[in-house]
Amino acid sequence: MKPADPPRLSPRGVDHVAKLGDRSLFPSLAPLVYANHAGISPASFAVKQALVAWVEDSARHGAEAFPTWMAQRERLRGKLAGIVGAKAEEIAFEQNTSRGVSDVANCFAWRPGDVVVLFEGEFPANVTPWQLAAARHGLTIRWADAREYVTRESVALEKLDALLHGARLCAVSAVEFQTGYRMPLDVIGARCRDRGVRLFVDAVQACGVVPLDVRSSRIDFLACGSHKWLMGAEGAGFVFVDESRWDELVPNVAGWLGHEDGLKFLFEGAGHLRYDRPIIRRPSFLEGGNLSAPSFAALEASVDLILGIGIPKIFDHVQAFHDRVEPKLAEWGFTSARSPDRARRSGSLCLLPPADVPLMDLHAALRRYGIACATPDGYLRFSPHWPNDVEESEQVVVSTEAALAAVRAGGAPQGDPL
Fold this sequence. Notes:
By secondary structure, this protein is of the alpha/beta class.
């Protein structure tokens, strides 16, 4: 089967261009400041056009559109590999982060009595699948504390050394969702590798805003979804499996496209329908069957915007935004979890509000005053991205001051947002 060239994802053949601090590709975005990219990113015009391109192609050609969008995904595979420093064949598409974590947990070649190191404070997507695997395979779980890294990283790493002794796998997030703390992956990866422990990383709070390199961090497995910092649509994600670890995955979740030459019986005539074709050795056996083609079309559109700017530049841009917000809120009694070490910072600024200010009331007031942010497990989280102008930080400060006054006065803010 020879796939067709994917259609252009921009109208009239004109490519969309992203510029730092330029919100023009989000003409319908309602909040004055959208600072919740660590939650769900809004759809850019480029993403909307990619979705439309798939719908129109499907509406016009039906099944004949299928190879076109398979080819599009192969192009995307290489781009995602480049973002994390991998090879294209080490990338498998998934529906989301949770599915990626679950598939690796289900397919890892466990032995009864194996030890898994998990972290308190992690998002459940990187805990629940390992707990289920532990129950199914008779594994032992040891717990580290991700929150301890914020204030006592050296102590936390010493404790991790003891937990890694005799362990089989360690699962950690690149960035902690609650505090925005960027975990020392290079250090953790080196310690895991020295002890023969496999390192699994949930990268959904990092990929697209924080530079990642699976080689320098010695990451064996990584999972990520597209709807946060990669700014795509829901329903798309990926897994990285280091080539040297392919044999450590057992194909427990493979589907019809997980076989070698799995498409022959559909496109090359009679005599190719067989059930004994071997499962492909590459991690793409995890893809199973048909994927959400529009979600991956949207992801490529958003990834192209990010790559057009460059992740290191996006990271610097976001830090400049936080540099303006953090000190002012600290003056007003907020406690920031942002590290003084730039290498431990992420795209999120997470703060505890003053003791006399109920968090959820403050969040409701901020929404009323035009600020989209989040409240992960007791923190107030601002997570801007490349479309946010650094000057929008002043609006965050003004709106926060107004929201504090409204909450302390005992009433919800009234009237139109600023």
